[in-house]
């Protein structure tokens, strides 16, 4: 690994996708069930890659194609070797904090808020977009430069032992589980396994004298945190950081409670963002960032990528929260939307995915929730909703929902658009 790391130090930009490749990059040819990066190794060299790492014999390349064993394992080992340069634990000389964030809902928004807060005081590197899996996390680590003072790593998972694996090369010193909910039930095999899978982060911290930031409003997270020596809590009734929503119409406005109460006016749609904001405050204060900077950082954060975004289009106010969806986040979004001011409210909801055998029950529960409120129109998109009996507009996909919306020619309406990533509900606005 030392020899590969020496090459990385000369060419410290790594890609696994030739579409993103730049001259002088290292290319790792990853092989998966539906793709084979080895087939693109020669192309990568022709495009200017310094070296290409492959696991299958590839002709040509003028000695710049290097055959290793499993290239994914090599990428992960390289990431671990680089991670070790920043100290392997909190007790290591010159170590910097590596803060891992996982959970069923809100982990990307929390990660972005934490990054904004920490960046106000420290040179901080973080996960770009949602590069939070077995390929994205190593790439994130390898983008961390020697000047780093902090790193924030998002970890997504849909099966047991996934986060435990990430921890072996990310080696977090601090960690946060946003919440435990009914997400990826199909892969985990049930809510108890979701709890175990997400809890693998706290298991690692417990075994390595790490620090946990604990959401006191989530009983499952509290139970997972038992046994961790160093815990800092936050929530509506958090022992260390507490706060509450004072307004969410449409942006979340939050009061931080304590001896010196503070108000935070976010640009995030929905009161359900309260724990995400409190987590960022909690981490900021732990690392001794002044309250004024914390508040400024959170208030300037503008959400993107279809997460809690407010969009004004054609005279309508649209809440676009279509990056992902599960039963808990759907319920929170619907209830929040029902509570905001508006005379012409429209719901456009895409199906929830990866719920396994629980899917019919969870979609039926959402239809029942929708029935409790008055709406001008409700459009339900995808088979998981539309296999069920309901009285609302049925659309096969997001493009059909877009056609419906365009024909309505709405004005002065309030519209909530939400659904699982694979439904691509953002296409409704294209």
The level of helicity is: 25-40%
Low-confidence stretches: none
What about the largest sheet?
9 strands, mixed
CATH class of the largest domain, anyone? Alpha Beta
Radius of gyration: 23 Å
Distance from N terminus to C terminus (CA atoms, Å) equals 47 Å
Number of structural domains:
3
For the secondary structure, the number of strands is: 19
Within the CATH hierarchy, at the fold level, what is the topology of the largest domain?
UDP-N-acetylmuramoyl-L-alanine:D-glutamate ligase
Summarize the model shown.
With 430 residues, the chain is of the alpha/beta class. It has helices spanning 2-10, 41-46, 71-84, 107-119, 136-142, 162-170, 185-188, 191-207, 219-224, 274-286, 291-300, 327-339, 359-371, 383-386, 398-408; strands spanning 14-15, 26-28, 51-54, 65-67, 98-102, 124-126, 150-154, 174-177, 211-215, 230-235, 241-248, 251-256, 262-269, 309-313, 316-321, 345-350, 377-381, 393-395, 414-418.
Write structural notes for this entry.
It is a single chain. This protein has helices at residues 2-10, 41-46, 71-84, 107-119, 136-142, 162-170, 185-188, 191-207, 219-224, 274-286, 291-300, 327-339, 359-371, 383-386, 398-408; strands spanning 14-15, 26-28, 51-54, 65-67, 98-102, 124-126, 150-154, 174-177, 211-215, 230-235, 241-248, 251-256, 262-269, 309-313, 316-321, 345-350, 377-381, 393-395, 414-418. It is α/β, with parallel strands linked by helices. It folds into three domains: 2-70, Udp-n-acetylmuramoylalanyl-d-glutamate--2,6- Diaminopimelate Ligase, Chain: A, domain 1 (3-Layer(aba) Sandwich); 85-300, Mur-like, catalytic domain (UDP-N-acetylmuramoyl-L-alanine:D-glutamate ligase); 309-429, Protein-Tyrosine Phosphatase, Chain A, CATH 3.90.190.20. Strands 6-7-5-8-9-10-11-12-13 form a nine-stranded mixed sheet, sandwiched between helices. Strands 14-15-19-16-17-18 form a six-stranded mixed sheet. A four-stranded parallel sheet has the order 1-2-3-4. The longest helix is centred in the middle third of the chain and has 17 residues, at 191-207. The N and C termini lie far apart (47 Å).
């Amino acid at each position: 690994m030392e020899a590969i790391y020496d090459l990385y130090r000369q060419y410290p930009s790594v890609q696994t996708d030739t579409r993103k490749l730049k001259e002088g990059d290292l290319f790792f040819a990853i092989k998966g069930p539906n793709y084979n990066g080895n087939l693109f190794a020669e192309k990568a060299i022709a495009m200017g890659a310094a070296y290409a790492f492959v696991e299958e014999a590839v002709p040509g390349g003028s000695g710049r194609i290097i055959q290793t064993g499993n290239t994914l394992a090599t990428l992960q080992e390289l990431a671990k070797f680089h991670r070790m340069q920043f100290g392997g634990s909190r007790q290591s000389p010159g170590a910097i904090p590596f803060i891992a964030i996982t959970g069923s809902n809100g982990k990307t928004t929390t990660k972005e808020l934490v990054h904004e807060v920490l960046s106000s005081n420290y040179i901080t590197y973080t996960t770009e977009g949602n590069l939070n899996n077995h390929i994205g996390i190593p790439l994130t680590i390898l983008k961390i430069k020697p000047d780093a003072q902090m790193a924030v790593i998002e970890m997504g998972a849909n099966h047991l032992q996934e986060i435990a694996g990430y921890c072996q090369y990310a080696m977090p010193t601090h960690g946060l589980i946003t919440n435990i909910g009914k997400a990826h039930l199909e892969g985990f095999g049930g809510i108890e396994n979701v709890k175990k899978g997400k809890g693998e982060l706290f298991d690692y911290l417990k075994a390595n004298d790490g620090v946990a930031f604990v959401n006191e409003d989530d009983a499952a997270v509290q139970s997972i945190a038992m046994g961790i020596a160093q815990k800092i809590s936050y929530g509506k009734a958090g022992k260390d950081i507490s706060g509450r929503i004072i307004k969410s119409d449409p942006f979340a406005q939050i009061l931080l409670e304590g001896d010196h109460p503070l108000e935070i006016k976010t640009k995030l749609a929905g009161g359900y963002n309260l724990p995400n904001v409190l987590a960022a405050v909690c981490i900021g204060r732990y690392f001794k960032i002044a309250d004024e900077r914390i508040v400024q950082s959170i208030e300037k954060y503008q959400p993107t990528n279809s997460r809690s975004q407010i969009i004004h289009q054609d005279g309508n106010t649209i809440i676009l929260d279509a990056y992902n969806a599960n039963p808990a986040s759907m319920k929170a979004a619907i209830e929040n939307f029902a509570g905001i001011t508006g005379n012409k409210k429209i719901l456009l909801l895409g199906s929830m995915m990866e719920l396994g055998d629980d899917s019919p029950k969870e979609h039926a529960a959402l239809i029942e929730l929708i029935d409790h409120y008055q709406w001008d129109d409700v459009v339900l998109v995808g088979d998981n909703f539309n296999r069920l009996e309901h009285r609302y507009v049925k659309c096969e996909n997001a493009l059909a929902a877009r056609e419906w919306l365009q024909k309505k020619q709405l004005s002065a309406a309030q519209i909530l658009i939400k659904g699982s990533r694979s439904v691509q509900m953002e296409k409704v606005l294209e």
